[in-house]
Structures are given as C-alpha cells and as structure tokens.
Amino acid sequence: MQPCKTELARAALQAHRAPLDLRQRRALILCDGKRSLAELAVLLAAIHRC
User: Fold this and answer.
1) How much is the average pLDDT of 8-26?
2) Alpha-carbon Rg of the chain, whole angstroms?
C-alpha cells in the first residue's frame, strides 16, 4: 500500500492555521503515493529521533 494525500490533507497542508502538529504535517508531506507504509515508518522514525 502506498498512501497518498486526499483533498482534505492537501487543504490542511495549505492552511497554515490547520490543527496539525509538526509530526502530522511531516507525515502528510511524506505521503506522496510513491512510498510504502514501511518506508514512511522508517522516515518518520528517523525524523523523530533527531
């Protein structure tokens, strides 16, 4: 499965006042329809450790 952004996700990213925390924003940005769930998990874990 390769997660991709919905219209709601795109709108939330464009609205800088959307109720998203930094982790949620990063996750939505990385969901590009090309990365698998496993790849996303690795990327997000690496970001979280920094």
Assistant:
1) 88
2) 11
